[in-house]
TrEMBL record:
UniProt GO MF annotations: DNA binding
Keywords for this protein: DNA-binding, Transcription, Transcription regulation
Name by which UniProt lists this protein: TetR family transcriptional regulator
Residue ranges of DNA binding: 23-42
Highest taxon listed in the record's lineage: Bacteria
Keyword Transmembrane applies: no
Organism taxonomic ancestry: Bacteria, Pseudomonadati, Pseudomonadota, Gammaproteobacteria, Oceanospirillales
Amino acid sequence: MLKQQIAERLEQAFSQFGFAEPNVAQLKTACQVSLRTLYKHYPSKEAMIVAALDFRHQRYLDFLQDNAPEAGTPAIEHIFQQLQGWMETFAPHGCLSVNALSAYPENAQIHQAVTEHKQAVIHFLGQQSLRPDLAHSLFLLHEGVSSAWPVLGQAAVTSALHTIQQLLEDTTNDIAH
């Protein structure tokens, strides 16, 4: 339980301060534990980042599914509306996973954590849309919203939803012909 609480607090600290600024002493304070306890559970700053990313991954998927309609187009629209709420509340500076990868581009553990998260999102989008053939396209729109959010805000979501409607119409028309 303590390990999970530390991961949650690490996620909050990295989300608030980024990856360059907080040193381990600051992270210890944010986690409200001793340095010994922090290192017992996460023996390096990189391990702390992976723990934060893993915690955030599950929290993110749970958030997207909150009050979700049945799978299909309504579910995808809901996911992108939830994405807007996530960006407004938890990620105004963009995707934490991408930021971690940018801060530590050579770290294999962080790269693996981000890759697994992104692969899970692709799978989730394919599953929820009932269109696994469109999973990568939906993922690119999802990532576009996350990346463009700091500059475009809600307009990124509006544009993505419009593109999704066109994509689904076009592929439905292609199937009908």
